[in-house]
Structure formats: structure tokens, C-alpha cells
Amino acid sequence: MLTIFSDTQVRALSDSISTIHKHLAEIESVLAASQTVNFESATAAKTAPVAKKAKSQVKTHASRRGRGRRALTAKQVLEIKRRLAAGDGATAISRDYKVHLTTINCIKTGKTWKHVALQQPAAVTVHA
């Protein structure tokens, strides 16, 4: 099988090979500077104690997943709920507030921000 490349393709391949060669050289220099330890014959070496992080620096599972961070205020959520009730699209609202569409849909379905509710007008009863 014979593959024919254009001059542009040959230059692109040559550039890619040069980039790969450069990165391989960098990897080789890092590996050359590293230290190899044979664990079977190594004796217990003294190591510097690892400094513990302050409590404020420790990340919890919840913060890693993005929970507990509020991108919106209760006032903004109330306005979002008003706009949703008025028929505005979730996509447009998410762009206006610079949040993900899922955030708006979770507000819409009540998965989040349940405690912020639109005030429903009191039912008027007429006694005859």
C-alpha cells in the first residue's frame, strides 16, 4: 500500500515529530535527574516529616464536588423562579446569570432552592 502526502501534510507531520522528540528529551532529562530506589534492599531512610495542612486548606469531599458553593443568591433565585413562571426559557436565564443550564433546571424542578418560593396570591373566596 502506498500513501501519498501533500507538502502541507508532510510539514505538519514533521512538526509533530519534532514536538514529540522535544517532549521525549524533556522526559529523559527528568528521569535522569530522578533517584531510583530498590525497595527490597533499601534500608529505612530518614525522611523529613510532612507538614500537615491547616484545617482551612483541607478540602472536603463535598467541596471537591462543587457542593456548598453558591453561585446565586436567594434574591437571584427568586427572580429566576419569576422568569420561569413567566415562560422565559431556561437557556436564556442560564446565560443571563452565567450558570449552567442544569442549575436553572434544578431550581425549576425544585431539586435545589426549595426554600425560596414565589409568593402565591391568597385564594379569594366570595361568600354569597
Please write out the topology.
Elements: H1 7-33, H2 61-64, H3 74-86, H4 90-97, H5 101-109
Your description of this structure?
With 128 residues, the chain is mainly α. Helix content is 48%, strand content 0%. The longest helix has 27 residues, at 7-33. It is elongated. The relative contact order is 0.07.
Gyration radius (Cα, Å) is 30 Å
The poorly predicted ranges are none
Q: What structural class results from the helix and strand content? A: mainly alpha
Strand content: under 5%
Q: How many E strands?
A: 0
The helix fraction, in percent, is 40-55%
Q: Kindly, what is the distance between the CA atoms of the first and last residues, rounded to a whole number of angstroms?
A: 94 Å
Tally the helices. Answer: 5
Oligomer: single chain
Mean pLDDT level: 78
State the shape. elongated
Main beta sheet, described?
none
H and E order: HHHHH
Feature tags:
128 residues; 0% strand; mainly alpha
